[in-house]
Amino acid sequence: MQNRTTIEDVYAATLQRNPGEVEFHQAVREVFDSLGRVLDKHPQYVQASILERICEPERQIIFRVPWVDDHGRVQINRGFRVQFNSALGPYKGGLRFHPTVLLGTVKFLGFEQVFKNALTGMPIGGGKGGSDFDPKGRSDGEIMRFCQSFMTEAFRHIGEYTDVPAGDIGVGAREIGYLFGQYKRITNRYESGVLTGKGVTWGGSLVRTEATGYGAVYFTEHMLATRGRSFDGARVLVSGSGNVAVYAIEKVHALGGTVVGASDSSGAIHDPDGIDLDLLRDIKERRRERISVYADERGGRARFLPGAAVWDIESEERIDVALPCATQNELSEAQAVKLVAAGVVAVAEGANMPTTPGAIRVLREAGVLFAPGKAANAGGVATSALEMQQNASRDSWSFEHTEERLSEIMAGIHERTAATADEYGVPGDYVVGANIAGFTRVADAMLALGVI
Ligand SMILES: NC(=O)C1=CN([C@@H]2O[C@H](COP(=O)(O)OP(=O)(O)OC[C@H]3O[C@@H](n4cnc5c(N)ncnc54)[C@H](O)[C@@H]3O)[C@@H](O)[C@H]2O)C=CC1
Ligand SMILES: O=C(O)CCC(=O)C(=O)O
């Protein structure tokens, strides 16, 4: 009972200290809801104020990013890097470039990243960064000038042994290239391990591009196996059509499933015959067009639903698996009810916190297998850690070897999460399992390192 009071007191203090940062509050609430049992078993965490410390970032950096657009006008954006926790290793986590990015967004992502990275079992702390810069409609030259200006401030805060950023929404290999180029230029050091998600010819790792989507599907495969199910013959919905979504679709198809819906922020596509991934990639990655073009060019039974989410597709078909791979809070309680009615057996978060608390409740009460992002999408950051290993040893591994490592890591995360849920008396609860397994690894390291 006393520990429940501690949790509520620390949560109340967190709200007071971080006013208005609703996504950060949501992420903290979700982790704290799993921790009562842990504090009962480990009073040393309470004595050392681990809860208070773990939700206070070690460092938060906010900076001005001035750059010149193609019309010669000076533009100003805000840059962020939140260095959340380095008990297990250098801060590690992506950069998001999107107009909605605020400090609270970066804090929620950084907080999630701490536990996710711990769950991988690899030596990486947690951090996240980004900017309210909107890359949509910007020319290549504008993207480059923005990235160079961002790095002109960020370089003094990052490094192979300090903080290692990577991509996230709006940041892919092109942006990592411009960021790395500017870092190299300013520091006069070819420090490959300072960023991950690099191109394979200049220090990147094979499989990093595919890793988050593939990893989420591997994790789901393990969950399905606990019910004697697999992807073979499964009908699947995937939200988004970016990096995570595309490779989740590819792996589902490779395993014999059929993805029948995908989306972007303008609406959803429904293709009952299965998404033609080559066409989708050509439209989204090469031509950078809206997803409605898919329905125009695919023909047949494919249709575009303007403004709709993929979860709102009305159809008689059953849906076996749902993989939210777009953005936070994109799957609502009402949409979870629809998925349950459509027969869904598993939902795994490829994105970070895409499922609202109400939707998670609906899915859990209906007995749907539910994998939180910090477990299901950890394959991306885990492969970033493999990229760091390759950089440190000046080596580069084959696709097969790296994918094999990814697959083992995802199996390990599934095993650790499921075993922790069993140990704490909630078998099959991947939310509690992931939160406790991630938390205890970080908390034990924090105890060992003293009050710092
Ligand atoms: N890239 C990575 O390695 C990792 C990414 N993630 C998470 O996965 C999610 C997607 O990231 P990426 O694929 O890297 O980004 P991306 O920028 O490549 O793609 C994002 C996709 O989401 C779509 N989208 C954005 N808002 C939407 C909305 N409201 N409704 C429907 N679609 C929407 C965009 O149109 C785009 O297709 C994010 O939550 C990110 O934090 C998590 C782990 C690693
Ligand atoms: O690979 C990385 O370091 C970043 C991955 C990331 O941002 C995430 O897991 O959300």
From TrEMBL:
Q: Which family does it belong to?
A: Belongs to the Glu/Leu/Phe/Val dehydrogenases family.
The subunit field of the Swiss-Prot or TrEMBL record says:
Homohexamer.
Answer whether the UniProt record assigns the keyword Cytoplasm to this protein: no
Sorted alphabetically, which keywords does the UniProt record give?
A: Oxidoreductase
A Pfam family matched by this chain, by name? ELFV_dehydrog
Source species of the chain: Agromyces allii
Q: Which gene encodes it?
A: gdhA
Annotated Glutamate/phenylalanine/leucine/valine/L-tryptophan dehydrogenase C-terminal domain ranges read 205-450
PANTHER family xref list:
NADP-SPECIFIC GLUTAMATE DEHYDROGENASE 1-RELATED (PTHR43571:SF1)
NCBIfam families for this protein: PRK09414.1
Q: Which InterPro entries match?
A: Aminoacid_DH-like_N_sf, Glu/Leu/Phe/Val/Trp_DH, Glu/Leu/Phe/Val/Trp_DH_C, Glu/Leu/Phe/Val/Trp_DH_dimer, Glu_DH, Glu_Leu_Phe_Val_DH, NAD(P)-bd_dom_sf, NAD_bind_Glu_DH
Q: In its UniProt entry, what is this protein called?
A: Glutamate dehydrogenase
